[in-house]
Each structure stands twice: as structure tokens, then as C-alpha cells.
């Protein structure tokens, strides 16, 4: 009886051992990198079965095989598939700039337009799984203004030619008023980033009171009336006086006259004896007739070099009735 029981237990153990060796191990669902997808919903796989892998949305394969094989040991062959984030194309934007950390899947790009340009479209976009941006590249178009406003009695000229009634950011217009109107304000306006012109000047009537004559001068016309903007008056000098300054003065836009000229007096050569040189000619002072040098006119006086016992000339110039003599000259009248 004991022998029969022992033989029965040995047979059962052999059956169990043989049965275990006849059932090979299965492969569980494999673990893959975060950007790789498994193309099956099954939980277990038999040895020899292949499992195909693919890149997740937004990723693209760069190297390796897209499959693994279940081995008899219950382990998968090593996965060599490598995926990287899909890349969106670099945008092209005229008259603007864009900024992004990179151009890969899920990255955001920001657009800006240059000063004086306005944006049409979205200022941001996201790189999508299919390698395209979530919105088209915007367009930066220049800011426009209408024609510059023209005040009454004024004319305007632009810095460049244009067609139609549209001007662009940065264009300028220069104003002039028709006399006797004067321009009040800045003479140049500009098309701004807001699509409007800077402040327009005004034209208004400006008059100046009748001017006073200058000393030793002659004024023309001699009219005791108010003069309009940019009207002129002419001056000259009497006798041997010389006019210094502008011959004409004009009525300015602030209601005042421009700077008047001055009549500068001539000089006499106040010496007792000796010779002078005037206009290239040597003349004894008693023969210098008339004894007169105009304002800013010049004569040459003779000084003596005691060491060399010779004479030399020194210039003397007339300034508004005063003739300055050099220190070396000894012939000045007292």
C-alpha cells in the first residue's frame, strides 16, 4: 500500500513539472517612453508576437525600428524608436518682429509690428501637433492718415509725392501763409502713429506800427500807417555815413520789425604832420583832401624803428567816427 501511494505521488509531480515546461511565459504590456504610443489594447502577448509602436501626436520619428517582439522569456526586445517634438516652420514677417523660445510642438510665438505699423491678425500662435501654427502669420501694414488739414489763407507742401488722398506714417507737411497773413504755430506737421496729424498752425493777420527813422538815415517809404506782415521798409544813409546792416527791414509775425541798420560815421585823420598811405598812395597829411576816411576804411601810418633807424607802416582803421592810432605813431594832434 505504501509503495502504491509513493508511485502515485511521483507520477503527479512529474505531470505537474511537464505541464509547467509545456506552457511558455507571456509578455505583459510593455513600458515605453512618454512620447511613444503602443498600437494595441491587449494586456498580454505570446512569445513571437510583434507589437508596433508609433510616435504620439506632435512628435515625429527620428531613428530606430517601430516594433518590438515578445521573447520566450516573457520579455520584449529593446525598443529603439526615438521620437522628437514636431517642428513648425519659422514665420516670415515684414515690418515687424517675432519671438519664441523655439519652433517646436506646443511652443508659443509672439508677434509685434514696427513703430508706425498696425497688425492685422493674431499676435500669438501655438505650434500644433501637425507642425502648423494655430493661426496664420499676421500682416503689419503702415499706419495711414488723410491729407493734412489746411487752414484758411495757407498753402501746404509735402515731403514726398503720393497718390490719392492717403498719406503714411512719418510723412510731413510744411505750411506757408499768404501775406499779409502770418503763420502762428509750428510750420511742419507730421502723420503720427495714431493715424492723425500733429497740430495744424494758423494764419492770422499781423501788422507792425509805422517804423521810426534811423539816426542820420533816410527811410522809404515815409508813411505813417500800419504795415502788414512781410511788408518792407528801405533805409539809406545821408552824406558820408555808411549803412551797416540790412538795407531792408520787414514786419515780422510777432508784430515787430526786424533789426534796423545803423548809419556809421566817417573819420578825420587828426594828425599835425607827416605822411600817410591811403589806397596805395603816399600822401602828406596837408594834401589829404578831404580829410575823410569812411567807416571801416583804413590808412597806413608811418612809425620809426629806432634800432634800425628806418620807418615802417602800421594800419589804422576807422570805426564809426573813431580812428585808433598805434602807440608807435608820434604825429597825433593834441
Automatic annotation (TrEMBL):
Q: Which SUPFAM superfamilies does the protein's record reference?
A: Complement control module/SCR domain
UniProt keywords (A-Z) are:
Disulfide bond, Glycoprotein, Heparin-binding, Repeat, Secreted, Signal, Sushi
Naming one, the record's GO cellular component terms include: extracellular region
Its localization reads: Secreted
Entries under CDD domains matching the protein? CCP
Role summary: Binds to various kinds of negatively charged substances such as heparin, phospholipids, and dextran sulfate. May prevent activation of the intrinsic blood coagulation cascade by binding to phospholipids on the surface of damaged cells.
| Name of the molecule in the record | Beta-2-glycoprotein 1
User: What gene codes for this chain?
Assistant: LOC114458158
Amino acid at each position: 500500500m505504501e509503495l502504491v501511494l509513493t508511485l502515485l505521488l511521483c507520477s503527479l509531480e512529474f505531470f505537474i513539472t511537464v505541464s509547467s515546461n509545456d506552457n511558455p511565459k507571456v509578455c505583459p504590456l510593455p513600458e515605453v517612453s512618454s512620447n511613444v504610443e503602443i498600437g494595441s489594447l491587449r494586456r498580454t502577448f505570446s512569445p513571437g508576437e510583434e507589437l508596433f509602436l508609433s510616435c504620439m501626436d506632435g512628435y515625429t520619428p527620428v531613428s530606430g525600428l517601430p516594433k518590438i517582439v515578445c521573447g520566450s522569456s516573457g520579455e520584449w526586445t529593446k525598443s529603439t524608436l526615438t521620437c522628437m517634438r514636431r517642428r513648425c516652420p519659422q514665420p516670415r514677417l515684414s515690418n515687424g518682429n517675432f519671438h519664441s523660445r523655439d519652433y517646436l510642438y506646443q511652443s508659443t510665438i509672439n508677434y509685434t509690428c514696427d513703430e508706425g505699423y498696425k497688425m492685422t491678425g493674431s499676435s500669438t500662435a501655438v505650434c500644433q501637433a501637425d507642425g502648423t501654427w494655430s493661426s496664420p502669420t499676421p500682416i503689419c501694414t503702415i499706419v495711414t492718415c488723410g491729407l493734412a488739414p489746411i487752414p484758411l489763407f495757407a498753402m501746404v507742401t509735402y515731403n514726398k509725392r503720393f497718390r490719392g488722398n492717403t498719406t503714411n506714417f512719418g510723412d510731413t507737411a510744411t505750411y506757408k501763409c499768404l501775406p499779409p497773413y502770418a503763420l502762428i504755430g509750428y510750420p511742419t506737421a507730421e502723420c503720427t502713429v495714431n493715424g492723425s496729424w500733429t497740430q495744424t498752425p494758423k494764419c492770422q493777420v499781423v501788422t507792425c506800427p509805422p517804423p521810426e527813422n534811423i539816426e542820420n538815415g533816410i527811410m522809404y517809404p515815409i508813411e505813417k500807417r500800419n504795415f502788414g506782415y512781410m511788408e518792407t521798409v528801405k533805409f539809406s544813409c545821408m552824406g558820408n555815413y555808411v549803412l551797416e546792416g540790412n538795407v531792408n527791414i520787414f514786419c515780422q509775425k510777432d508784430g515787430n520789425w526786424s533789426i534796423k541798420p545803423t548809419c556809421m560815421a566817417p573819420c578825420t585823420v587828426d594828425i599835425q604832420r607827416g605822411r600817410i598811405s591811403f589806397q596805395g598812395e603816399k600822401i602828406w597829411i596837408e594834401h589829404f583832401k578831404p580829410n575823410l576816411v569812411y567807416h571801416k576804411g583804413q590808412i597806413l601810418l608811418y612809425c620809426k624803428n629806432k634800432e634800425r633807424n628806418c620807418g615802417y607802416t602800421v594800419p589804422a582803421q576807422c570805426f564809426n567816427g573813431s580812428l585808433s592810432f598805434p602807440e608807435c605813431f608820434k604825429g597825433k594832434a593834441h
